[in-house]
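Section 3.1 - Work completed
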Amino acid sequence: MSEVSYKPFIFMLMSLATAALLTYLVREITHKFGFVAKPKLDRWHKRPTAMFGGVAIFLATVSIYVAFVPKTSQSLVIMAGSSVLFIVGLIDDILHIKPYQKLVGQIIGVAMIVGYGLVLPWTNVDVLNIAITAFWLIGITNAINLLDNMDGLSAGIAAIAAISLAIGFGASGQFYELLFLSVFIGALIGFLIFNFNPASIFMGDCGSMFVGFLLASSVLMTEVGGRSRGIVPILAVPALILFVPIFDTTFVTLLRKLWGRKASQGGRDHTSHRLVALGLSERKAVLLLYGLALFGGLLSLFVRELKAIQSLALIAVFTVILTLIGVYLAKVKVYQEQEEELALQNHAGFGFLVSLSHKRRIFEVLLDACLITLAYYASYLLIFGAFETSEAWGLFIKSLPFLIVLKLFAFLIVGVYRGIWRYTSVRDLFSFSKGVALGSVLSVLALLLFYRFEFFSRAVFVVDALILFFALAGSRLAFRFFRQLLPSGNPGEGRKILIYGAGDGGEMILRELNNNPEWNYSPVGFVDDDPLKQGKVINGLKVYGGNGSLVKICRENEIEEILLSFRRISPDKLNEVRDTCRELNVSLKRAFLKIETIDFE
């Protein structure tokens, strides 16, 4: 193994061990002197937790860097600027300075970086590049700070982003930069040993501001951004590497503004908090965000190897997925009902946006326009390969406007926009197929009329129709997929119920219960007298056999309520179920169109 291959790992391990030791010492010292973060209503932790973990990250990174890493002028400037941010954060942790005072410290760090000449080469105008770089450095620094809202989240996401960046350094042959970042990665992992759920120490502002600024500054050193490549990789790669903090900060800022809350104030409305509100544990929520960060990092490495248009298409697909996730998470209630009513009363614009979001029609049209474009591009790519420099590109460009307009018109005609996403069914899939078929026919007729369909490929339109149908159906089924992937509420909470009848009515009731967690029901399973259904599974719930076993089933599963799912039931069977419920002190209700209590008398 060559020196180039093992040195980064050696430095990372040295930094990891140093950070772990320093974190342990800082934790003990802060507990001894009472420097702990006490639980608050707008914070997530439930017990006093040691602070100043950022001190360990900073000291480990600086000490190993100074002692072992070959110095470059770029890494020295970045380390100096990040040290300024560490000092500003440390002062804030101790004295709780004003936001504008922290901003002044951030501007000083930005001035050091930009003054040296490190900027994002996103335009051909130097002044504009400087402004964009300043926004990038301050934005990512504060994004990492805002992301530090759950055990292990900020440090873990930063470590994943740094690893993605380090791989890019290695691929570009930037060995000294790779060593520099390896030390930083080791410090983050060493701290994460004590910060992962359940955390025994927090990094504090001194840690989050140091980590965020160093990470954002390191992007400026790399060729991963594609300084010699097209504009798309230059724009996309840094954003993909750090997309989790960017997404969370944008998401929270927009929603807080809509609710009339200050974007800078604390709160339990971050992406991680909403995942927990959906039923995930804190650890699973953090691990899920780790996975998304890892996916973004891998995508950033993939994008830089593609052509500009292909990169743009891939990023557009990723953006669509993120948008759907954002819309779904925005539906999760994190504010009290009184706050919602007050926001609606005091912010007329917010009320308009809520109504617009509920109807979702404008959003659906814009989404479908994007899906039509992506499906058409993908069909050309599959048929012709890399076609951007061929005659097929001209055909694609001049025909795309016709397809967007005519296919949206077809969707409108067949009723694609009449449905509600959460209730998408097989009948809706037939509407989608009719809309896609009609849109394809209209598109072909238009191209035949205007261009006599010369040089256009019939195979492209067949493939395009198939891709568009699956994209359209997938986008509408996304919310149902999210509900299956993520629990709809805290598992185990609510009244444990048994649905009597494992037919269509029972399945419909289960869907309604899952769609309305505020009803506070926790379905345990089905019971049915049909022996052919016994042992089957419906939407993840077991079907128990009836015929005298109801008492045993209720006792074993601690059932509190039974819902009858069918309208007609024989008097003898109804009396039998009623007697069982009376014996076990279990409520009995009929759930047909609406839930009604059945009297025992």
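Second construct:
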Amino acid sequence: MTEPTFGTLGVPAPLVTALAADGKTTPFPIQIDTLPDTLAGRDVLGRGRTGSGKTLAFSIPMVARLGQGLAGGTRRRGRILGLVLAPTRELATQIDRVLAPLAAAYGMKTATVFGGVNQNRQVEAIRAGADIVVACPGRLEDLMQQKLVSLDAVEITVIDEADHMADLGFLPGVTRILNATPQGSQRLLFSATLDNGVDKLVSRFLQNEVLHSVDEAHSPVTAMTHHVFHVPGSDEKKELVRFLASGTGRRILFLRTKHAAKKLAKQLTSQGIPSVDLHGNLSQPQRDRNLAAFSAGTARVLVATDVAARGVHVDNVELVVHVDPPMEHKAYLHRSGRTARAGAEGAVVTIVLPEQRRDVDSLLRKAAISVTPQTVTAASAPVVELVGEIAPHVTPAPEQPQGRGGGQSQGANAQRKRAAREGQGGGRGQGGGRGEGGRGRGQGRTSDAPRRSSDAPRRDGQPARTAGQAASHGALKAAPTGGARRTGRRASGGGSLTVGSVVRQNGAGRRSGR
């Protein structure tokens, strides 16, 4: 039997050409199953594990139908015709990377909408003529409340990773957004599961939907192999982690807390293994910069918290390491899904201390993963075989001072850099030269839930702060004279770090953020 191609599935010639230019000539099972229905305009519920090819499965029909509808017609600027909702900024960015070249084949433009950056550029991109918008629900609702975005012309809406939307508490916002799109417009929903209210979303907004599920036996994710490595203690674990990170290919190491991820990335880099971190404490430019370094290969290792379990879609990740085992089986599957993507092979390692064995056994049973644990060291044969060729040692670049003033000392630069770090982690300080150190937030948060201002509206119903407003919080302004001294103080009772006590040494007085 002849294998289907994008052309035989009904994909228009301009998109077949664009796909071939990117090396995509053979459709995956979920694309083969869904494209005939999505291209025909039907509502579709797609169920498949991460890495099964869902992004192309909805990007192709969205661009094809909108592009053909615009052919020869007039386009009204500022009218959004296609909308994709994604749970995280990283996922939204990577969906846009897939969509943009396809949209360009029909002269259409795309834009992204998410928190953590200035909203003005996003609004300008939409007003300049973005036909398709990829958005996180929180920022999109903010713009809708400000009357800066209208969805009354949307013809196709996609909800991607709806189960993760539910996990993050975004479904009420998704419901309000879908209510703002025209009834009878095409809607596509992709999700690994239908729990936590996703089923209600389907029944309310999808009409006569067609269900397509790609079972594990035919999914590219079956190229994933699982390993459970038991270690006797923390010292053996550290050495095992270092060795697992030392191979030549891309690998992602998952930890439970932001502080631990940042610390491990620095340690590995200092040991000659170029690494970057990804977690909720990073600004959007920092996230973009670190992901770009990982995608380009200048950093072989990404050390991440669960914020990256859904948001990172980088091809050819050969190894995922659960340095800290996740708390529940869905997180295990989502983390592990960063490897063995797009038909490639990949391996998953879970490192287990003695006190974690029972919990990990239970977690793997719930995830339907059958694997025999092995007690290992970094020098054990299974570990050496898994790591393969060791990458050359890379001498880390010296850390550059980040001072602004040309005549200030390196010591003052280092102090300012340290204070800035503390200001970011220690809460949203009032800054602006007032010497106020923050609200006792930030360092006490050990979970990696997204900040409310990034992708969700405030609980009081007011719009989230813009990036410019957010940037003003937590900033410490240098004293007019050199040599200002800053001290960080722990707030009693909460474990949070408050940056305060800016002392002028020229006798002009003392200001405290306490």
